[in-house]
Specification:
The chain has 267 residues and is mostly helical. The termini are far apart. The structure holds fe (ii) ion (2 copies). The site of one fe (ii) ion (FE2) has 6 residues, from helix 4 and helix 7.
Length: 267
């Protein structure tokens, strides 16, 4: 019988987005039906497989996005988000496979399998929307540095949770409402509706991060807030960018005492 870590590695090794999504859907369904119930111990690859396109570039070599709401800019925004969501699928499965050897309860895996499944939905919605706009995922260069957050924290579950759900996904909550407003202002309510789905789900992803960060900190008997500060300073290394979406963060159970002291002073 297949194990959850084997299924996770199967997703990570799929290069094509459609295949990554199909394998995610299948694995999540089997897990929910308990047709996969063993966690197993198949280690994840160092880097997930990716399609030949988009071409990956360093952040500094990425074309600057203009703030106007024209069709080209909307396509560029949706493309960048589709890329983030494809990374997010891999991040969820990597978390599952990478830290499976630790003694973690079934609820931990329930949460992250659901996250992976939702990230697959998000990428799929955005890829479909791009096609409706006569574009496709892969048409533009994309940020090649997104995996660094994962590779830098592969040794420590608490560090991974601090950086991925509790810095990067929480940041998504801060910026998405403005994106939705801009899309609505450009009369692109179809794209705005997709971002609303993503926004709703991402609150759950941050909540999963907060929940398991607290759980793991308690298990190690370390103070959660101070530990978060230490880990973010060490592994994220940049100040957090206000303004924060305090309401959404609070809805995710992520208290301001965690992130406010790490806010950039000068923005
Ligand atoms: Fe997502
Ligand atoms: Fe997410």
């Amino acid at each position: 019988m297949q194990t959850l870590t084997a299924a996770a590695v199967g997703v990570l090794e799929a290069a094509e987005p459609a295949e990554k999504i199909a394998r995610t859907r299948a694995a999540a369904a089997l897990w929910r039906q308990r047709e996969i119930s063993e966690i197993g111990a198949v280690p994840p690859p160092e880097r997930p497989s990716r399609p030949q396109r988009p071409v990956l570039k360093a952040a500094r070599d990425m074309p600057k996005r203009r703030a106007r709401g024209g069709k080209e800019n909307r396509i560029a925004l949706l493309h960048a988000l589709a890329h983030i969501e494809l990374n997010a699928i891999d991040l969820a499965w990597d978390l599952i496979a990478r830290f499976a050897s630790e003694t973690l309860p079934r609820a931990f895996f329930d949460n992250w399998v659901e996250v992976a499944d939702e990230e697959a939905t998000h990428h799929g919605l955005l890829a479909t929307r791009l096609r409706e706009l006569d574009a496709a995922y892969g048409d533009f260069p994309a940020h090649g540095g997104l995996w660094e957050a994962a590779s830098g924290t592969s040794e420590d579950l608490l560090a991974r949770l601090a950086v991925v759900p509790l810095v990067l996904e929480a940041r998504g909550l801060d910026v998405t409402p403005t994106m939705i407003e801009r899309l609505e202002a450009a009369d692109d309510s179809d794209s705005a509706a997709i971002l609303r789905v993503i926004y709703r789900d991402e609150i759950k992803h941050v909540a999963a991060g907060a929940r398991w960060f607290a759980w793991e900190a308690a298990r190690r008997e370390v103070p959660p807030i101070e530990t978060y500060h230490r880990l973010v300073r060490r592994y994220f290394r940049a100040a957090l960018k206000p303004p924060f979406n305090d309401d959404a963060r609070e809805a995710a159970g992520f208290a301001a005492a965690f992130y406010l002291p790490l806010a950039a002073m000068d923005s």
